[in-house]
């Protein structure tokens, strides 16, 4: 994508055996999506206002102010250029800096859309769309995050004044973590226990104004601030995650989001026919976006590690010739190429999840709630699977880049620091896997009842076959048959779920059993989610994919993804009797051969992500591979090198050196 200078990776690029430009379109999702993404990426990269290479040198205050500046400037550009929502979303993506706007657009607006009545939407959405108010999503408290039903903030209806009184009764009920809350938001969708006539009706969302629209001061009864520095310098510290306490704050009754439950003027609580779980709907939406984000973060780390692995040489010089490129070491390939394949796999499962989410949203609008449990299980499970894998992968990419990967200028430390909370926010990954496990146990318990499993569990309808089938792979090539691979993954997932269900049935108290077996249940959930990813990759390959060699590359990556999982989890596959040790060894042999096929295409496969050097933010991942001169020059730019003799020499170094000298003379 970058032009200019000598291309140190040109030879690598010439080795590739497919049409990279067509692959860029597959990666982007469509030609239109590619064009938008490419245009906006260049816009951001060419605008000095979006410079980000100094982030880790700024103090927290400077960093935060800088983020406010960028967000305001981005908003100005969105207006000036009349960007569409799609273009604005891309602009946010390429600016690459967590900001309050993420929560405003990503959670506050969707919460009102999903949980507000028509009337409430008409009142609040225009204000939010024009950013005349800025909102956050204030759910988590100091004492409870995962257990939403355990939240302590109260919203007590006062029939005298037709208001709710929002209160934080304990220290642990303080809202804690919401992004955008600390210093920016004027409003919040705050989650609180609804109390009417002394009766607790569970947790609901309320629109609460926090700060004055005139001078930004907190309104009476509101205590609000930032919760302090987070992991890493720069990184997520651009975000003002906040603390909030309510001291009997009064809001009008019509500021409770009432799509699910209404409280009338008389104080009557009326349940609509919309399921209660819709209160959790915003989380479902964001989990879906987090899966797509996982493929972006992972592809970025992989792009850096792949390009650098082709530039870096160690050992193996023959007759004074060049040393071996580290990408040619089989160990490097076996660590790197599965991550490359995972980036593509997560991309495609993210596309599918977006479709699933859109479908469920349309159904919900028509009061069809039948696919909500499936949407919850898939978004929760895939969010957990993809973010855990991506967080581990970024760290692996750092190691794949050796010592230089540890330098900030590699881009990997900041990427890691920004990314890892994705394993926690929007639902702790283990807690989410256990939600999937509950869904699986329910599905397994209904097998044989005549109720056919559908959607992601449709494979369970072939339980009789999958429980006793034997894998047919006899030769290495058999592991390139999608049906063989899919059946192995289906059988493993089903058998692990059934084993859990059988063990659960031994407990007289099911909840006790679930707690006792939760580690096994989480593993069964992982097996199910991995099957979803594999099957969506296989489905993608059934589509018409134009471009010379493109489909073949994707096929290779699909098998790399599947067979590396099979290798990594061979304990599961063997212990459930889905494959034999001989078949596991054949699969591994096939995997090694696939790595050799990926090797000549590796650079082109990461070029297909179409990332600008600005977005990558990595000296090691530069498009032109000109790593060493840039690293060398960059080092001299460090503020520590502003002076040859460091500040502090006279106070702290010289006296020590002199003392040593004196001691030596004695
Ligand atoms: C710069 C310029 C900008 C310009 C403009 C830009 C324009 C547009 C840009 C768009 C940008 C979009 C950006 C988006 C990106 C956003 C970035 C986000 C960053 C991260 C923020 C992080 C925010 C948070 O973390 S918010 C807090 C999240 N909290 C959690 O996730 C809590 C986790 N806990 C739970 O979800 C629950 O407590 C749970 C599920 C663990 C247990 O709940 P409960 O006790 O009630 O349930 P159960 O008894 O287990 O289940 C009961 C029943 O309900 C079912 N169920 C549970 N959850 C759901 C659900 N979500 N949906 C549906 N059903 C659910 C469950 O399965 C049970 O069903 P049964 O049938 O009864 O078994
Ligand atoms: C960067 C960041 C941004 C955030 N932004 C927001 C925001 O905008 N708005 C908002 O409301 N919240 C936000 N949060 C809060 C976030 O959603 C919660 O931290 C998250 O849901 C996890 O909850 P917790 O902190 O209570 O973890 P805990 O539940 O306390 O987890 C601690 C440990 O206990 C384990 N555990 C907990 N329950 C179970 C169980 N039932 N079974 C087995 N193990 C269990 C977990 O696996 C974990 O290992 C943010 C958090 C972070 C880190």
From TrEMBL:
<dbReference type="GO" id="GO:0033540">
    <property type="term" value="P:fatty acid beta-oxidation using acyl-CoA oxidase"/>
</dbReference>
<dbReference type="GO" id="GO:0055088">
    <property type="term" value="P:lipid homeostasis"/>
</dbReference>
<comment type="similarity">
    <text>Belongs to the acyl-CoA oxidase family.</text>
</comment>
<feature type="domain" description="Acyl-CoA oxidase C-terminal">
    <location>
        <begin position="482"/>
        <end position="658"/>
    </location>
</feature>
<dbReference type="InterPro" id="IPR046373">
    <property type="entry name" value="Acyl-CoA_Oxase/DH_mid-dom_sf"/>
</dbReference>
<dbReference type="GO" id="GO:0003997">
    <property type="term" value="F:acyl-CoA oxidase activity"/>
</dbReference>
<dbReference type="InterPro" id="IPR029320">
    <property type="entry name" value="Acyl-CoA_ox_N"/>
</dbReference>
<keyword id="KW-0560">Oxidoreductase</keyword>
<dbReference type="Pfam" id="PF22924">
    <property type="entry name" value="ACOX_C_alpha1"/>
</dbReference>
<dbReference type="GO" id="GO:0071949">
    <property type="term" value="F:FAD binding"/>
</dbReference>
<feature type="binding site">
    <location>
        <position position="179"/>
    </location>
    <ligand>
        <name>FAD</name>
    </ligand>
</feature>
<dbReference type="InterPro" id="IPR055060">
    <property type="entry name" value="ACOX_C_alpha1"/>
</dbReference>
<keyword id="KW-0274">FAD</keyword>
<dbReference type="InterPro" id="IPR037069">
    <property type="entry name" value="AcylCoA_DH/ox_N_sf"/>
</dbReference>
<dbReference type="Pfam" id="PF14749">
    <property type="entry name" value="Acyl-CoA_ox_N"/>
</dbReference>
<dbReference type="GO" id="GO:0005504">
    <property type="term" value="F:fatty acid binding"/>
</dbReference>
<dbReference type="InterPro" id="IPR009100">
    <property type="entry name" value="AcylCoA_DH/oxidase_NM_dom_sf"/>
</dbReference>
<feature type="domain" description="Acyl-coenzyme A oxidase N-terminal">
    <location>
        <begin position="19"/>
        <end position="134"/>
    </location>
</feature>
<keyword id="KW-0285">Flavoprotein</keyword>
<dbReference type="InterPro" id="IPR002655">
    <property type="entry name" value="Acyl-CoA_oxidase_C"/>
</dbReference>
<dbReference type="GO" id="GO:0001676">
    <property type="term" value="P:long-chain fatty acid metabolic process"/>
</dbReference>
<keyword id="KW-0276">Fatty acid metabolism</keyword>
<feature type="domain" description="Acyl-CoA oxidase C-alpha1">
    <location>
        <begin position="280"/>
        <end position="441"/>
    </location>
</feature>
<keyword id="KW-0443">Lipid metabolism</keyword>
<keyword id="KW-0576">Peroxisome</keyword>
<dbReference type="InterPro" id="IPR012258">
    <property type="entry name" value="Acyl-CoA_oxidase"/>
</dbReference>
<feature type="active site" description="Proton acceptor">
    <location>
        <position position="426"/>
    </location>
</feature>
<protein>
    <recommendedName>
        <fullName>Acyl-coenzyme A oxidase</fullName>
    </recommendedName>
</protein>
<dbReference type="InterPro" id="IPR036250">
    <property type="entry name" value="AcylCo_DH-like_C"/>
</dbReference>
<dbReference type="Pfam" id="PF01756">
    <property type="entry name" value="ACOX"/>
</dbReference>
<dbReference type="GO" id="GO:0005777">
    <property type="term" value="C:peroxisome"/>
</dbReference>
<feature type="binding site">
    <location>
        <position position="140"/>
    </location>
    <ligand>
        <name>FAD</name>
    </ligand>
</feature>
